[in-house]
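Minutes, project huddle
Topic: does the predicted pose make sense with pantoate bound?
PN asked that the exact inputs be recorded in the minutes so nobody has to dig through chat later. Recorded below.
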Amino acid sequence: MQIASKILCLQALIFITVLNVFHNKSELSHHLNSLKVKGKTLGFVPTMGALHEGHLALVKKGLSDNDYVITSIFVNPTQFDNEQDLVKYPRTLESDVALLKTVNETKIMVYAPTIEDIYNHNVQSERFNFDGLENEMEGAFRTGHFNGVGTIVKRLFEIVKPHRAYFGEKDFQQLQIIKKLVALYDIPVEVIGCAIHRASDGLAMSSRNTRLTKEHRKAAPFIYKTLKSAKIKFGTKSAKYVTEWVEKQFKKQPLLELEYFIIADTETLKPLKRKSTKKTYRAFIAAYAGDIRLIDNIALN
Ligand code: PAF
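Predicted holo structure (tokens), as shared on screen:
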């Protein structure tokens, strides 16, 4: 190994030791228990890594509400319905740890487990019934996805036992499902949803954005632009009208392929049939930019 790369490895090792990175749940639990007996509060930000400003905003919110924040970095195999997506998902532990270090060196811990540490030798999802939330939108298009998410988040909550946990609203359906998981299993954690973090051109931040080609990256802000126009139209038009309008806009955009546009009830996530002034609604989009699947959503009222 050349001297320069040896130095880089050494630097990476130093990052990892300074910031308290755990790869093993018993060492992690031991450390967290020592903080909890001192009365310290713990915020938790579960991630699949490839951290960006959106994740850092969750970590910062966690730090402002708690004494310490633990971030898990684990690309969870059971929530992928597409083998290629799992294989290509970015894995950037060293730079993730370095990024977290820029936020705070002493109050952030990382749990980056191996697959065995989480699943032992049985890499399988539990089956959940989230009162039908799991069958809408992402659930309909990604078979088994929310069983995978439910399995990993429940396991992580059991290991970390945080006081509060932070999730971005970009995955709004996931957020509602995790609130349901916590209620169903009586898990003593406060689930906090945080606003979507966007690039200056409006694209919702996502670890998948790093895999977009230059052309697709340039086209992708169209998703949020369309959501914003849909919101304005929803003020005076029906859900059917707005949906057809959005579908027409995407047909004119050759670089993006719309998978779904759905206006849904915020609580049940069921598609809106008739507007009620007593309910709140959100519009949800999933679209492909090449082979990268992007999702976004917006509150409508
Ligand atoms: O939102 C994510 O990054 C993942 O779905 C989560 C919550 C970390 C579970 O793997």
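Observations noted during the meeting:
- The first helix runs from residue 3 to 18.
- The chain has a mean pLDDT of 95.
No decisions taken; revisit at the next huddle.
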